[in-house]
Write a structure and sequence with these properties.
heterodimer; A: abc type-2 transporter like fold; 6 strands; about 65% helix; about 5% strand; elongated; B: alpha/beta; 6-stranded mixed beta sheet; 13 helices; about 30% helix; about 25% strand
Chain lengths: ~375, ~350
């Protein structure tokens, strides 16, 4: 273990003395956030939400159902499309490939009143239809549920009297973008460090020299992985400080997002080592790393939501690991729904363990 | 029952249980462990039929040799002769295709860790973390060996005191090699492998490195070095093995190789008269006169000394503008054995 600590200390010293590494891991993503955050601060990233309010009396929405529609409207998170109560909403959702549809059933007002008066022993139900295969469906569902629950539980005291202040959190572009940049930075840092360092050490004989010392290969890999995790955390901390101070964002750091960032670093470190095994020299290594990171950066929902991309690109995004990292971080940090991110974290952890195992196995210090 | 001690055979202490960290259970076990290897204290490296193939290419072809403790042994040959492949097999970086080798008594295919702990290695073109200083680099490698050397002493030994806080990337080639040598010493090794230690260095830097290598021997260390510089082997080595196309074509003490395979030393008298020839030949040695240059050349043998020739010339009143004695060198040995010259850059 002392070897790992020793190598880690050397690596961190090296990091602090390398201006270009500091630029790419901290300054560049910070500039991205400031720039894109400023450019898109007026517009907000909105999700499409279809809504059918069946709870109407003489063509007029009931009090509770109308309140919910208003809350969702003021959240600024959705482009709300109202469906006529007479059509069969389920069929409509299927034929038109809607990603999310909220149905407020008739009689909702009565059950909601009853729910409030009985302090929740009766529950008022809405129906939410969403396409699980799209990325936005589960996110929209969690925002909608959050809004409705707040409306129902607080409304009895405040809604009727003051008629205000139950707007849920407003989501802007920066809320979407920041977790993406954290995921992207974890990816680029880990892949580039692993690829270019492995290729360089192989080329100029550092691996050869290390192989003549008692340092074990797995100890070195462990040190590099911990290093990448620490640098990714550093990037994450800087992005969050920017978000909190400059953009007054509200976000949470929970164990799920911390585990996600660590596992993403692990996965991309392994991926970098696998790439390094198949390149001949350091120049080729950087090119190969670019070939892998660039498409992922743009197709994994870092800069704009997947739902805005054509269907075939969305399909590609589904097989890119960064997609799962970004969406997991978004659910956990921004929407405050870490349980939504657990599955993604499990997927990334599994991929991480697999890639670091394969990467370690095929990285050779000694030659045949 | 655990006992420690040493096994003495005749006048040689062939087994030191303290050093080898081995528990002696009974004589039979020790005999089995000793079979096939020479653990006597005067052998540092023993190689038997070592072979390395890459597909059809035979890089090292069944070589055998022994390196004694305390000597500087040079492996001399052109690039691609199999020097680095051999040294890397001894450093446990490459697996031999066939044959056996023991480094400090440890089998290279079974006991890598012990070999790594007791040897120091300077690879061809030493490289490490670019952004660590000289001092940090030595501390880093010392930590890898869990050893606590006198870091400042090592820095002083390789004369890098004024560079100790300079980053590795800012060092010149010669300084990098010197740091590499200091790093090879962090674990106070008994045996040091130096693979082309001065390749690519300018003559001044090369002489500094030679001096350092010479110092190792004074501290009782064994040195195994590979080189394609004739002069390097000649200046440093007690014994030289000449490797060519994966085979050892000659192996002996350096001066013996030169006297056996080298040409005779050559005496050249510049711008003299043809009268010099009969004067010299009176001594019973052949001399040649070159009409074009006016030079006389004499292949010296042990029967006649240079001073006898000079005395004879002076008595006969024969003058000359300049006198040169060309010593026979390993260059001649190599040429003689292989019919080829080393590359152009082999001249120092």
């Amino acid at each position: 273990m002392s070897h790992v600590v020793l190598d880690l200390k050397a690596s961190l010293k090296t990091f602090l003395r390398n201006k270009s590494t500091i630029f790419w891991t901290i300054a560049f993503p910070s500039v991205l956030i400031l720039l894109f955050g400023a450019i898109f601060s007026q517009s907000s990233m909105k999700y499409d939400l279809y809504l059918q309010n069946q709870d109407q009396i003489n063509g007029k929405a009931t009090l509770w159902s109308d309140t919910i529609v208003n809350v969702l409207n003021t959240s600024n998170a959705f482009n709300i499309h109202i469906l006529d109560p007479s059509i069969n909403a389920t069929d409509y959702a299927i034929t038109n490939r809607l990603s999310s549809l909220l149905i407020i059933p008739s009689g909702f007002n009565d059950t909601a009143n009853m729910a409030v008066s009985t302090s929740g022993s009766v529950t008022a139900n809405v129906t939410f239809i969403y396409d699980q295969s799209t990325s936005s469906g589960p996110v929209v569902r969690s925002i909608v549920m959050n809004a409705i629950e707040r409306t129902l539980s607080r409304g009895v005291h405040y809604l009727s009297v003051e008629d205000l202040t139950i707007a849920p959190k407003r989501f802007g572009y920066i809320d979407f973008f920041l977790p993406g940049v954290i995921g992207m930075t974890a990816m680029t840092t880990s892949i580039f460090t692993a690829v270019s360092l492995s290729a360089r050490f192989k080329e100029n004989g550092v691996f050869h020299k290390l192989a003549t010392t008692p340092l074990k290969r797995y100890e070195w890999i462990l040190s590099r992985t911990i290093y990448n995790v620490l640098i990714s955390y550093l990037g994450m901390a800087v992005m969050m400080i920017l978000g909190l101070t400059i953009f007054s964002m509200k976000m949470t750091v929970d164990p799920v997002s911390l585990i996600m960032v660590a596992m993403a670093s692990l996965m991309f470190t392994g991926l970098g080592m696998i790439i390094a095994r198949f390149v001949k020299d350091p120049d080729g290594a950087d090119a190969a790393a670019n070939v892998v990171t660039f498409p992922m950066m743009f197709l994994s929902g870092t800069f704009f939501p997947l739902s805005q991309m054509p269907q075939f690109l969305q399909t590609i995004a589904q097989v890119l690991p960064l997609t799962y990292v970004n969406e997991g971080l978004r659910s956990a940090m921004i929407f405050g729904q870490p349980q939504q991110a657990i599955l993604n974290t499990v997927i990334i952890t599994a991929l991480g363990l697999l890639s670091i195992f394969v990467g370690s196995w095929i990285t050779k210090w000694e030659e045949d | 029952m655990r006992r420690s001690g040493s096994l003495v055979y005749g006048e040689y202490q062939v087994f030191d249980a303290e050093r080898f960290k081995l528990t002696i259970l009974d004589v039979e076990t020790v005999v089995i462990k000793l079979r096939g290897m020479d653990l006597s204290n005067d052998v540092a490296i023993q190689v038997e039929g070592l072979t390395k193939r890459y597909g059809d290419l035979i890089a090292v072809n069944g070589i055998s040799f022994t390196v004694n403790r305390g000597e500087i042994f040079a492996f001399l040959g052109p690039n691609g002769a199999g020097k680095t492949t051999t040294v890397e097999m001894l450093e446990c970086l490459r697996k031999p295709t066939a044959g056996k080798a023991y480094v400090l008594g440890h089998d290279i295919s079974k006991d890598k860790e012990s070999i790594k702990k007791r040897t120091g290695v300077l690879p061809q073109d030493f490289a490490t973390y670019e952004r660590l200083t000289v001092k940090e680099t030595i501390q880093y490698f010392a930590g890898m060996f869990n050893s606590h050397p006198d870091v400042d002493g090592l820095i002083k030994q390789v004369d890098l005191e004024d560079k100790k806080n300079v980053l590795f990337k800012h060092l010149s080639g010669g300084l990098k090699q010197r740091l590499g040598i200091a790093v090879a010493l962090v674990n106070d090794p008994e045996l040091i492998f130096l693979d082309e230690p001065t390749s690519g260095l300018d003559p001044k830097a090369r002489h500094v490195v030679w001096h350092l290598i010479d110092e190792f021997q004074k501290h009782g260390k064994t040195v195994f070095l590979t080189t394609h510089y004739m002069e390097e082997a000649e200046v440093l080595a007690d014994r030289v093995g000449i490797i060519y196309n994966g085979k050892i074509v000659a192996l002996d003490a350096t001066d013996k190789l030169i006297s056996e395979y080298g040409k005779k030393n050559l005496l050249i008298l510049k711008k003299t008269s043809s009268k010099a020839v009969p004067t010299i030949e009176k001594l019973g040695i052949e001399a040649n006169f070159d009409d074009a240059t006016g030079d006389v050349t004499v292949h010296l043998n042990h029967a006649v000394t240079v001073s006898e020739i000079l005395h004879e010339l002076s008595s006969a009143d024969v003058s000359f503008s300049e006198l040169q004695v060309k010593r026979s060198s390993l260059e001649d040995v190599f040429l003689n054995l292989t019919g080829e010259s080393l590359e152009e850059d082999s001249k120092v």
